[in-house]
Write a structure and sequence with these properties.
The protein has 229 residues and is an all-alpha fold. The protein folds into two domains: 104 residues, no CATH class; 108 residues, no CATH class. Helix content is 66%, strand content 2%. Strands 1-2 form a two-stranded antiparallel sheet.
Length: 229
């Protein structure tokens, strides 16, 4: 009986916390509606959500950014995040090791992206557009081109941004809509399929002359990344 009362009390607390969190997210415009199954399955779901929220709340901001970068590069992002959360229950030394491994994999992924032949140097980008390298640098500084940097490799320019249908006003309007999010976050936005774009990536949508829809999606995405309600 005592054990049953404990479980009931834990469920009550989790339900209240989860409902408060959902209400805050809904009020801010950043969240998505929470819907739970009925009966025992719903009760289990509420307990699970509360456990996940508490685990995420213990993650240092810098660690969360690196883990997110790694998760988004995986074939199953959600499973990668849950794997890290499970690791959070280990000893402090193991958690530190897990975080270091996540950081290292994130760094390796960025380095691999920049090594890809589709990542152009400033000279190659200038040749592609028939302008000087100084012009390329200036456009990047003005937010009219996407330039990625990591380590000592220098700037690299994704080749797709020089394609017909993407280059020029279309790309610039999307980059402007992304606001102050950093270059790697911008690259992530362009590379991920978006439900609002019919499952297309923003790159694919721009190729199909869907710039206005991509701009709207970019504005909403950037607001979420920056925590703007």
């Amino acid at each position: 009986m005592a054990e049953a009362r404990k479980r009931k009390r834990a469920l009550l607390i989790a339900t209240k916390k989860t409902n408060r969190g959902a209400a805050r997210e809904s009020a801010s415009g950043r969240g998505f509606p929470m819907s739970f199954p009925s009966g025992a399955r719903g009760d289990v779901a509420k307990l699970a959500v509360q456990e996940v929220l508490e685990s995420v709340g213990r993650i240092p901001a810098r660690a969360a950014e690196r883990i997110l970068a790694e998760a988004l590069g995986a074939s199953a992002p959600a499973s990668r995040v849950m794997e890290w959360l499970r690791d959070g229950g280990r000893s402090r030394s193991n958690r530190k090791q897990t975080m270091q491994q996540a950081f290292r994999r994130g760094d390796e992924r960025r380095a691999a992206i920049l090594r890809d032949p589709s990542m152009l140097t400033g000279e190659a980008a200038a040749e592609r557009l028939g302008v000087s390298r100084e012009t390329i640098n200036k456009r990047a500084q003005q937010g009219k081109l996407l330039a990625l940097e990591f380590g000592k490799r220098g700037k690299r320019y994704p080749e797709w941004q020089f394609e017909d249908g993407v280059a020029g006003a279309a790309l610039e309007s999307v980059l402007k809509a992304l606001g102050s999010v950093d270059a790697w976050q911008r690259f992530r936005f362009f590379s991920q399929a978006q439900v609002a774009l019919g499952g297309r990536t923003p790159i694919e949508a721009l190729r199909q002359r869907m710039a206005e829809r991509v701009v709207r999606e970019a504005e909403g995405w950037a607001a979420g990344e920056q925590g703007i309600g």
